[in-house]
Amino acid sequence: MEQNYNGLLRYTSLKQSHRDVSYLKVAYQNFVDFIRRYPSSTYAVDAAQRMQFIGQELAEHEMNAARFNIKRKAYLAAVERGLWVIQHYPQTPQIPEALATVAYGYAQLGDKATSQQYVDVLKLNYPNLVKSDGTVNLRAARSEGSFFNRATLGIFGKEAKTVTDIDAQSDAPENEKRSITNRISFGLLDRPKTAE
């Protein structure tokens, strides 16, 4: 999907999600229409992958706006951005940060009951985002769905792990854990040895 980026974006700190994304919204809707009209097309899989990429960019754009709103203490606007991401982009890596933003925003607005509901969801799914005193760790939430992690397909950077992911990983035998070479090559190199 990187071919959609401007050449300068690759070599600078500019991010696509910090720029105007109106054309991405149009492209997303066009892909939705394409898949609805031609579900058995050979291009339907490619369109779905592009929709996923665009959805991540749009979610990141919303979270950038939410971060800005938190900096300027516009907590209601930040909550609305977070809720938008949760409602419209539920499969994106920005969900942990969106949940944390909504919980933090409601706490700052004085709505402790609603904030506690979102904190409970965070405790259940992303326990590392809740501090021991029950408050939200926004800094940790921002690093969960980092661009570096997404750009390297989860090979580098932190991943947002749910409780079920952590349990499944701890239950996995040592020989099923994959090396960095195995992950980079998508399983083609350095295959883990299986007991026969």
Cα separation of the termini = 40 Å
Note poorly predicted spans. 159-172
Structural category is mainly alpha
How does the major sheet shape up? none
Mean of residue pLDDT values: 78
Total strands: the figure is: 0
Helix content: 55-70%
The coarse silhouette is: globular
Which range does the strand content fall in?
A: under 5%
Question: What is the CA-based Rg, rounded?
Answer: 19 Å
Q: How would you spell out the order of helices and strands?
A: HHHHHHHHHH
Number of helices: 10
Give an overview in words.
The protein is mainly alpha-helical and 196 residues long. The chain is built from 10 helices and no strands. Helix 4 runs antiparallel to helix 5. The longest helix is centred in the first third of the chain and has 28 residues. The radius of gyration is 19 Å and the shape is globular. InterPro entries: BamD, BamD-like, TPR-like_helical_dom_sf. It holds the Pfam family YfiO. This is Outer membrane lipoprotein BamD-like domain-containing protein. Keywords: Cell outer membrane, Membrane, Signal.
